[in-house]
Design a protein that fits this description.
Distance between the termini: 51 Å
Order of helices and strands: HHH
Number of strands: 0
Largest sheet: none
Structural class: mainly alpha
Strand content: under 5%
Length: 68
């Protein structure tokens, strides 16, 4: 018979993490406004006609700390 796993072993402990550690933002979740507009433009017009929106999204991503 396998031993049962307690809830304590599943739940991450906040004691092991520094209180000041910032939560890392995933690239897919960063800059939703510029991403939405960029994606809509690309779907309707193609990449060539949306270069300014692509660059605006890249700039936003860089400001959020992503190396693009």
């Amino acid at each position: 018979m396998m031993p049962l796993i307690s809830d304590k072993s599943i739940t991450p402990s906040s004691e092991n993490k520094p209180a000041e550690e910032p939560k890392k933002l995933k690239a897919c979740c960063a800059c939703p406004d510029t991403k939405r507009v960029r994606d809509a433009c690309i779907m309707e017009n193609g990449e060539e006609k949306c270069r300014h929106l692509i660059e605006a999204h890249k700039e936003c991503m860089r400001k959020m700390g992503f190396n693009i």
